[in-house]
Design a protein that fits this description.
The chain is an alpha/beta fold. Helices cover about 50% and strands about 20% of the residues.
């Protein structure tokens, strides 16, 4: 049995997933791991993987489904003691496995790392990266933490098996990790575990992604909220863009890097947060619709 099972939800397809898989196949401890790709694309990604990465365990989904469900399928098929979850546009350094292994030897069941910006050519690349990953960009604080990045994380399989299938299949990793916390599972953040997030967006595509993600997130949160909490989130919506933008500013200030990129991208960031807040409002009122399956 392998020590690690790497689980990749394939929704973006080529060409980045090929670079992602090459980085995993070049790991120092590659012999002790299996790679599972659960693919929902229709662009020839599956055929490319079969031809060029024959050791990858490829699973085709039945149609277009959400990323959480793709990950859940991969987790169910995994045979490793530890499940490493990443994305099809994340590139790992050669010591990725060995860093996770060393961290797990400290006795923690959930290990998370940092996310570095792998696309720095355009201002929008910085705006989209800071929008999603300002809290997880290096340096991250070492030690116990409440949540870790969902695309650079390793779970001990026995703790994942404690999570109901509904949570794994129909909820974002925020809710899965919250469920683990309720079971008194401690998380460890390790700054030396880093992946490069390498995905380029155009402006309007990213706006649509922010809307669909926030709408699906708010719908999930609504299902787990009291009436009082739901009312609070409705009243919070108008101030959310300002609060969320300020949180990004504070993250960058604490990390003492990428301040120039933040300053230049602030107008775009605020627009992203306006759309994000609108998506949350719609999800809170009308539910998620089909937004979950549209998040890439």
């Amino acid at each position: 049995m392998p020590k690690f099972s790497v689980i990749i939800a394939s929704v973006n397809g080529l060409p980045t997933i090929a670079e992602c898989l090459k980085s995993i196949e070049n790991q120092e401890c590659r012999h002790d791991a299996e790679i599972i790709v659960v693919d929902s694309t229709t662009d020839g990604t599956a055929e490319h993987i079969r031809e060029n990465f024959p050791k990858v365990k490829l699973i085709k989904s039945a149609g277009k489904v959400g990323v959480p469900e793709l990950r859940a399928i991969g987790m169910k098929a995994a045979g490793g003691d530890f499940l490493i979850v990443t994305e099809d546009h994340c590139i790992a350094p050669a010591n990725w496995f060995s860093e996770f292994q060393t961290a797990h030897e400290k006795g923690y069941a959930v290990i998370g790392g940092a996310i570095e910006n792998g696309c720095q050519r355009r201002l929008i690349d910085w705006a989209t990266f800071l929008c999603e990953y300002s809290a997880f960009m290096p340096p991250i604080a070492a030690g116990e933490t409440e949540f870790v990045a969902g695309n650079n994380v390793s779970y001990k399989r026995t703790v994942i098996e404690q999570i109901p299938d509904d949570i794994k299949t129909n909820y974002w990793e925020y809710f899965l990790q919250a469920e683990l916390r309720r079971k008194n599972i401690n998380f460890l953040a390790v700054p030396s575990i880093v992946v490069n997030h390498k995905k380029e967006f155009d402006f309007f595509y990213f706006l649509s992604q922010r809307f669909h993600y926030s709408r699906s997130f708010a719908a999930m949160r609504r299902r787990k909220s009291s009436v009082a909490q739901q009312i609070f989130y409705l009243f919070y919506a108008p101030i959310a863009p300002f609060h969320l933008t300020w949180r990004i500013v504070q993250n960058v200030r604490r990390k003492k890097r990428n301040r120039r990129e933040l300053l230049l991208s602030l107008p775009m960031l605020f627009i992203f947060m306006l759309v994000y807040a609108f998506g949350e409002f719609i999800g809170q009122i009308f539910g998620g619709g089909n937004s979950l399956s549209k998040v890439e």
